[in-house]
Fold this protein.
Amino acid sequence: MSHHTQIKTTVQQRADHVPDFASILIVDDQRFDRKHLKKLCSAFEFTTHVIEADSLAGLRKKLRKERFDLILIDYQLTDCTGLEGVEIIRADPVNCHAAAVMITETKQSDTAIQALKLGVSDYLTKDELCAETLMRSAISALQKSRLARGIAVHAAPDQVVTGTLQSYSRECTQDIKPIVSRIMRQMRGLREIKQLESKVAAERLEQVEGSLRRLWAFLDDLDHLGGKPAEKQRGPTVAAAAGGEILQTALRINARVPSLRPAKAPPKATRPPSIFRRRPD
């Protein structure tokens, strides 16, 4: 037979975990019981700010307005059970990690098990309520709540990293697309390369080479961001055009795209300055 055993803390343990302040919400449909709980909370060894709600609708209203550290909720409410109230608390985006203690008329193991499954830290019967038992239960519940909040905070960076990666991938796509678009236009200009003069054909191949170098350099930067050392390897080559003098001209062009950024060479009189690191228009 399952049963619920309350964990009792020593005075020293309480002193180590007593908070400085706690905002408390009392949810009970009986005015006398709310006033009694409020009086017990005023005897806590830390500062409290207590607000009352007398129904499920009142609970929803208070949750929309404020953030609470601890919620004391009666099991038997007029318009629902305390279990339904706990479900509302756990679904609230602001107060989902608030510590919760359920107050019951009598000990019921089934009710206690359901409450614990919903995330209630403890439950107390109204007969055993006193300043000592309520404060001990409140401190334990607040400690569990702080732990849950800490776990949620540590999980948040994973979501931030995922969002950052998605945003960065979109930015990279926008940077790569213009380069690829330019290469496609330049490649279309090579279809009639056999009918072009050698000088014009060489210039068009140089344009393709420059675009490929910019694309390779961009990918090389991404490789450095990933923390991988650049390897000396031969990159992709521009396919040489077939036929006669044009083929020989294309073969003389160094169209290999190195994975390491080449040193800047002094500009030649017959060739415009390099635009190797310039972004596409």
In short: DSSP finds eight helices and five strands in the chain. Residues 131-188 form the longest helix (58 residues).
